[in-house]
Amino acid sequence: MPEKKQELICYGIAASNGYAIGRVCLVRHDESFFVEPLDRNIDPSEAAGEIAHFHASLDAARNEILILQEELRSKADASDVGIFDAQLLITDDQLLTREVESMISNNCKPADYAFFKVVEKFVAAISVMPDSYIKERTADIRDVAARVLTHLQERQSGMMHYDDQRIILAHDLTPSDTAALDRRRVLGFAVETGSASSHTAILARSMQLPAVLGISGDFFEAVHDNDMMILDGYTGKLILHPTKETEAEYRRKMEAALVFFHKLASEKRLNAETCDGFVLQLSGNIENVDDVATVQEYGGCGIGLFRSEYMFLNASGLPGEEEQLATYKRMLQAMGSEAVVVRTLDIGGDKLDQALQRYAEPNPFLGLRGIRFCLQERRDVLRTQLRALLRAGVYGNLKVMLPMVTCVEEILEVRALIEELKQELRREKLEFVPDLQIGAMIETPAAALLAGPLAKVVDFFSIGTNDLVQYTLAVDRTNERLNYLYYPTHPAVLTLIANCITMARRHNIPVSVCGEIAGDPKFTPLLVGLGVHELSMPPVAIGPVRRVVRQLQMADAELAAQQVLECETPEKALEISMKMLRDVAPEIAELVAPEHV
Ligand code: PEP
Ligand code: MG
To answer: Residue 315: what are its φ and ψ, rounded to 5°?
Structure first.
């Protein structure tokens, strides 16, 4: 009889709500994922894109090998470095390339599958050769092929050989890895790295994938592929080898959550209006144009943040003006008269892109990120994006906001560029919106302190608390070891937020919050009391936040916000907001209060 395995529990950081019960797909760094991808057919119209993606993946693998070779050159003798020459020959092999291209165009196969099949054929041919030296080269081929395949599949390779849905357990998932996950095949994921405000966590919430981050290495080592596991994204709990009783308990919890969210969904047409008549806008944060439908499904009244960089990450080439125009137009037309706020490209920090960035930076969060990157490094990309936005503006209620602003000059420079582009469009007789609204994201202490002057040159503020907390407290938002210091209710952060709201009022411009705290009911009483006009959040969070807003009295929330601003510690400030949440909406408080801290 097989040995009965002991139930093992681990707590990580609760990053995305929901439960997942299923078998594990284990992804280790050191593994070569040269496993057969899913065999499917593509539409002939997709062939060119697949071929471009194949070449981009070959290039990426070639660059990686060149870097490895360079690193080794300083440490090893020339014969070791030669190993990589053999590998480079494989990435440059014309015969292989042509066969893959032909399989994509003539047999309508996706690039990853075509590449896998062609490489297998090469390996089979070499394996039967009498020369043992050549035979040994099969390991090199598989090694390079695994590298190329990783790029082709953006790390989904580990998932490809399963027919059922899985819980992914990995050391790390970058934002691009996460964005590339196939929601139909993944139940949820747990990783060793990251914190609740990292982009990996944000994406998990957007994709409605339950997720736990920052799990211990010891737990990771105890897990094997195919093990049964329960992932509780509400509390950050992972249960390996659950007993029948535990599994039954979690199936009940899943059912209860489904009923509860179904009930919340029935309130989606109600205004987010406090008991004493103050109406807030609750809108959605999205990374993918298809998620407009999810925002509508949850009753959001607009898109408060479209993270446009995800059009660039994982793309086989840079999206051009027409392609971007089509995307924005689709979003605007779907939202009708409701506002769609597109944030210009925010590359840098933890969102890195080889196709866009020419240099690796030693400290990417403090480097050329967001609007700095666009103005300094890729003005060409910003021009294309702004042209597409100006043209898209005629299809709906479009607003544009700029990330990582630290000074007035950045806004003025973008405004000047917009004027130049308008002239260009006029000359080309292309239709565009003449009065595009421009907003500043307030996500650096500099911007928050400079809110007065900034308010004079923009049409709205959107407070990005994810970064504002990171930069104010000098706490890397992606570092799980600093999670204990990442406090959105730190007095320094609250003072900055309050300053923005005061300045926005003084200059009569609206202010929204689009950082993750906007969708966390713990902070709703506080943010309502501080007087923000709009909260923009992952679509799934709209229901709970709406319920809280509707139970609040503005006068009470304002009083609580005043008390919060006088607190000297983050814990005390949070407790005031939490207490109000417990008083007005205990059922929501129960949902967000972790059972283990
Ligand atoms: C923020 O910083 O709060 C924000 C909304 O932007 P992002 O999370 O994409 O950095
Ligand atoms: Mg940000």
So the answer is: -85, 155
Can you tell me which atom of ligand 1 is nearest the CA of 464?
3
CB-CB contact of 348 with 359 (8 Å):
no
> Distance from the CA of 467 to the center of ligand 1, in angstroms?
6
Nearest CA to ligand 1 atom 3: 464
Q: Does residue 81 surpass a pLDDT of 80?
A: no
Q: State how far the Cα of 539 lies from the Cα of 518, in Å rounded to an integer.
A: 11
- DSSP symbol at 154: T
Kindly tell me if the per-residue pLDDT of 361 is higher than 70. Answer: yes
Work out which ligand 1 atom sits closest to the CA atom of 197. Answer: 8
Distance CA 187, CA 136 (A): 39
In the DSSP assignment, the letter for residue 428 is: T
Are the beta carbons of 346 and 404 closer than 8 angstroms?
Answer: yes
Please list the alpha-helical segments (H only) found in 272-430.
292-297, 321-335, 371-376, 379-392, 408-427
CB-based contacts of 552: which residues, under 8 Å, 6+ apart? 274, 275, 524, 525, 528, 580, 584
Residue 286 to residue 280: CA distance in whole angstroms = 19
What does the DSSP assignment read for 333-358? HHHTTSEEEEEP---BTTB--TTT-S
pLDDT top residue among 22 and 29:
22
- Ligand 1: which of 198, 303, 351, 443 to mutate, most ligand atoms within 8 Å of CB? 443
Q: Phi/psi at 274 (nearest 5 deg)?
A: -70, 165
Tens of pLDDT along 538-589? Answer: 999 999 999 999 999 999 999 999 999 999 999 999 999 999 999 999 999 9
Asked whether residue 177 carries a pLDDT value surpassing 90, the answer given is no
Distance 257 CA to ligand 2 centre (A): 30
Rounded mean pLDDT, 260-282 = 94
Active site residues: 199, 514
Assign 79 a pLDDT band (cuts: 50, 70, 90): low
CA of 82 to the centre of ligand 1 (A): 44
Percent of the chain whose pLDDT exceeds 70: 91
Atom of ligand 1 nearest to the CA of 468: 2
Q: How many helices (H) and strands (E) does the chain have?
A: 23, 17
Q: What is the spatial distance between Cα 204 and Cα 15, in angstroms, rounded to a whole number? A: 8
Ligand 1 binding pocket (C-beta < 6 A) is 202, 305, 307, 346, 443, 464-467, 514-515
Neighbours of 111 (CB within 10 A): 30
pLDDT in the model for residue 270? 96
